[in-house]
Amino acid sequence: MLAEQKLANLKRLEALLKADEEKKAEEAKARLAFSRYRQNARPQQLPPEGNWFIWLILSGRGWGKTFVGSSWIVEKALQNPGIECAIVAPTFTDVRRTCVEGPSGVLKALMPGQLKFYNRSNGQITLTNGSKLHMISAEEPDRARGLNLSFCWIDELSSFKYEQTWTEGLAPALRIGSPQVVITTTPRPTKLIKEFFNRKDGSVVVTRGSTFDNAANLSGAALAELRSRYEGTRIGRQELYGEIVDDVEGALWTATMIDEHRVKEMPEMARVVVAVDPAVTSGEHSDETGIAVVGRGVDGRCYVLADRSCKDTPYGWAQRVVATYEEFKADKVVAEKNQGGDFIQQTLQQVMPGLPFKGITARVGKRLRAEPVASLYEQGRVSHVGYFDILESQMCEWLPDSGKSPDRLDALVHGITELGFGLTGTADIYLATIAPECPNCGMPNSVGAQSCASCAKELIRTDGTFSPFPYPN
Question: pLDDT value at position 33?
């Protein structure tokens, strides 16, 4: 009888504990319903229904990606005491400054009394319910090894340097309970993003959003400027409307060629040039003046340092060129002078007398000028220091046989060509063969030319065949 009474008491105690746990869970759920996230999110920013593994959010700038990612990961960590979660971004600085400490970051998503400890140095956030959030840099693919993750927020997957951060680090670590991942990213057409986007097994739910979905919380002036600058362009479709813009068939450059070798910081430079493709008129319908800053690093690689292109009067763009020259401590300014002639040099030297200047007369077609430079990118010998949205859009959209090429792209080609990369490199040998220099005056001449376009020196052998570079005396 005594044993039966003890068993009954034990069952009542278990029932009370279970009821207490359920009550606390319901109270926690009710509190979450009044969280900053649930009260302020638009319907499209709330988690989708269903048994999904990845919620892939592809949206334009300003849509609220960081707000959604931080709010969702905090909500999951609070709903499930004692679990491990991860917050991942391209660099540790990105994780800390944007995902955690930013105006829409994790610390803002937490309510008073929910944070126990935040260790900035080792990248760990501990909540009062025992859950932990690990801050991980995508630059360290092995960082997630050994973790037992239930949930993960990945920010800007399109900018990850290593695919292995996902395939070998995060994916195997997501193994507790029914793990889920939220990915908030600009929709650059990387291999992983296209793979997730094209899954049809129900494991991935895709949300796409436009910058203008969040117009109520953004500056009207800023939105107007974004429309004016990007509306109707490839980069606008990606950066404003959240579209995955595939590579253009026939284009010399692809987004992958640029993204794979992108860096965040400029190394020590051995040479720097400012290259200009000038507009010779000014007005509402005038061309832009392409202004590209390109350098040769001490490591022998080519680096694209800046795109300062603009639409301005001749004196206005000349002032910008000189300011850029001084900012980057460049060696010289190179500019195409097919249309402007000596006027370009004169305009620049009105702003800065004695400015080191080299005029370029383009003698070969745009395809022949651009192909060797595109080959350098394909060989992985060129790195962009940061992002140059409009320039990169022009590079990936231009078709060699479509006629006029964009001014920013022309300036880039002039700059890289001026630096004379890798005299033994495949691309540079090709450049020499399609635009060999006249041994008399140094003018580049296209293959097939019988005489130099500048000094009229004969460029053919006595047997009548074309003489390849270098020409015999």
Answer: 65
CB 418 within 8 A of CB 444: no
Q: Max alpha carbon distance in the chain (Å)?
A: 122
Backbone angles phi, psi at 149, to 5 degrees: -90, 140
Name which of 74, 136, 137 is nearest 104 in CA terms. 74
Residue 77 and residue 107 in contact, taking contact as beta carbons nearer than 8 Å: no
Instruction: Kindly list the distances between the CA atom of residue 66 and the CA atoms of 70, 95, 427, in Å, as whole numbers in the listed order.
Output: 6, 11, 42
| DSSP code for 275 | E
pTM of the model: 0.60
Instruction: Of 60, 58, 68, give the one whose Cα is nearest residue 207.
Output: 58
How far CA 307 is from CA of 240, 288, 296, 411, 442, in Å, comes to 20, 12, 16, 9, 29
**Which residue in 403, 405, 390, 411 sits closest to 344, CA to CA?**
411
Distance CA 377, CA 374 (A): 5
- Amino acid residing at 362: A
pLDDT at 78 (0 to 100):
94
* Residue 444, preceding peptide bond in cis (omega within 30° of 0): no
Q: List, in order, residues 6 or more apart from 460 with CB less than 8 Å away.
A: 450, 451, 466, 467
> Which single residue is written with the structure tokens 């015999």?
472
- Omega of the bond prior to 470 within 30 degrees of 0, cis? yes
Q: Tell me, what's the pLDDT at 427?
A: 42
CA–CA separation, 451 and 79 (whole Å): 79
What H or E segment, with its residue span, contains residue 70?
Answer: helix 65-79
Instruction: Give the pLDDT score at 106.
Output: 96
Task: Specify the DSSP class assigned to residue 112.
Answer: T
Query: DSSP assignment of 369-414, as one string?
Result: HHHHHHHHHHTT-EEEBS--HHHHHHHHH--TTSSSPPHHHHHHHH
Q: How many residues does the chain have?
A: 473
Question: Taking Cα atoms as reference points, which of 276, 436, 266 lies closest to residue 344?
Answer: 276
Which parts of the chain have pLDDT scores under 50?
422-434, 460-473
- Kindly list the distances between the CA atom of residue 107 and the CA atoms of 115, 146, 205, in Å, as whole numbers in the listed order: 8, 25, 27
Residue-wise pLDDT for 379-392, tens only, equals 889 999 988 988 98
**What tokens does 399 get?**
């078709």
